[in-house]
Amino acid sequence: MKHLTPFLIIIMLIVNQQSIFANDLYSLTVRVVDKDTNRGIEGVEVFIEEARIAKTILTNKDGYCEFPKIFPVGKIVIRTGKKYGYIPRVISATISPRIEDNNIVIELERSNNLIFFGQVRDKKGSYINNATCILKVGSDTEIMSSDSLGFFKHEMAHDRPKSNIAEMEVSAANFKSVSNKQTIQPNQLLYEFNVILKKKINEKKLTRAV
Question: In this structure, are residues 43 and 63 in contact, taking their beta carbons and an 8 Å threshold?
């Protein structure tokens, strides 16, 4: 050890510290608030799904929910569930070894429109970016793209739908397209279309194999 330079000693300490953090688990506090008033929103489902974790907790009267010590240091994705009058969100966050940093605030926007939303993933659970999502309601057609977390959404005024059936067709390069339908209900604002796409079979490889 006496032959090590100060620089190498610092590097070894950093690596050792990171390995310690990698084995520790940390808690997380999430607060969901109204974007305009900053008041907590009660009864919002907060869902976190990672490789080793899948957990949903409801917010309390002040908009808070507490997740126990189940998270290793690293990236997570947080999704809010359906809450009447609010637009759902999906965000990424980082679990830190500094406990005071593990407090996340999620702002939700109010909306009295119909909201069509969802996430696009592959069979392994990975998010699919830039998937084409085509919403068809009667003669109306809206085209949107999924973001880096596979999330997409579209708002539509109450008086606009000319049909009581909403169809969402989702496609992405090298994946088979999927189409789902839902019935538009008189007192329902939120319509969730979570989609899992399957890889296309390479027909050329199959021909060669035969």
Answer: no
Angle at 34 between CA 30 and CA 38, to 5 degrees: 85
Residue 82 near residue 118, CB atoms below 8 Å = no
pTM of the model: 0.78
* Environment class of 146 (CB within 10 Å of its CB; exposed 0-12, middle 13-18, buried 19+): buried
- The side-by-side arrangement of strands in the sheet containing 140-145 is 140-145, 132-137, 165-171, 178-183
Structure tokens at 99: 């406990």
pLDDT band with cut points at 50, 70 and 90 for residue 4: low
Contact residues for 207 (Cβ-Cβ < 8 A; gap 6+): none
Enumerate residues 6+ apart whose C-beta is below 8 A from 112: 85, 158, 189
Domain span(s) for CATH 2.60.40.1120 in the chain: 26-110, 113-200
The pLDDT score that the predictor gives to residue 121 is 95
> Using one digit for the tens of pLDDT, what is the confidence trace for 74-112?
999 999 999 999 999 999 999 999 988 999 999 999 999
Homologous superfamily of the 113-200 domain (CATH): Carboxypeptidase-like, regulatory domain (2.60.40.1120)
Let me know if domain 26-110 sits in CATH 3.50.30.10: no
